[in-house]
Amino acid sequence: MGTATSTPRVELKIPSRPEFISVVRLAVAAVANRMGFNYDDIEDLKVATGEALTNAIQHAEGRVQAADEIVVICIMEPRALVVEVCDKGEGFDPEARRRELERGELQEGGLGLLLIESLMDEVRFQTKPGEGTLVQMIKRLPES
Amino acid sequence: MSKHTDVELSSQQMDEQTAVLSIGGEVDLYTVPQLKEEILELIERGVRRLVVNLSDTQYLDSTALGALIGGLKRLREREGELRLASPQPRIRKLLEITRLHNVFDVCDSVSDALKGWTAQGGTA
Known about the structure:
The complex is a heterodimer of chains A (144) and B (124). Chain A has 4 helices and 5 strands. Chain A has 144 residues and is α+β, with helices and mostly antiparallel strands. In chain A, strands 1-2-3-5-4 form a 5-stranded antiparallel beta sheet, with helices on one face. Chain A starts with 8 loop residues before the first strand and ends with a strand. The mean pLDDT of chain A is 86. With 124 residues, chain B is of the alpha/beta class. Helices cover 35% and strands 29% of the residues of chain B. Chain B is built from 4 helices and 6 strands; from the N terminus they run E-E-H-E-E-H-E-H-E-H. In chain B, strands 1, 2, 3, 4, 5 and 6 form a 6-stranded mixed beta sheet that branches. In chain B, helix 1 runs parallel beside helix 2. At the A-B interface, helix 1, helix 2 and helix 4 of A face helix 2 and helix 3 of B.
């Protein structure tokens, strides 16, 4: 007899306010440490998660009914940590952001996206202007 | 605006136009307004040569990098300059990823960064 094992997850729901970004960074670092990631990979995860949250909070402002919560889910797969950051803000166009950066327009949002994509092994966006954003970031454990 | 302990900013004026701004702790979306305010105050006070000492900086995000870029732009508009000093390896990595190591002068120490900016206001 056995029981189905599900992938362990840690979920956080935070107010969409800047003072909570460091709380999530610490939580993600703790999860990554538990999984056996090394110091550099843990720092990469902290930065990438921080940038995704910054993007979510900055784009929650200005909506008539501001998105007041952000959900962060850490999915502890056997060989990877998947961090999902989900908001109900105004959404954004990642391609437009990348093009701005390529044109040398040093906007913070472009730098944030660049950092996420450089530090994580895989990044996926589900976003549309006006419909919120899900950022899924994957960091794999090194082959032992 | 209330101050909080995630970041500690201290500035040291070397001469009328030269200052060293030390950033301790973490600068992110929450604490970056303090950094922006400090840089602005230094410029308004007449500082034109600013060294940002990163030796105790544990974390910088894109908003913090943006604040430093903003400071650099303001100083250059006034024929001034902003240099970064002593970034920890993690911060240096972020500067390289964002290619900002090509935008800023990044020095290994505060004294290196101050070289060429003499107390008399000339250059060596």
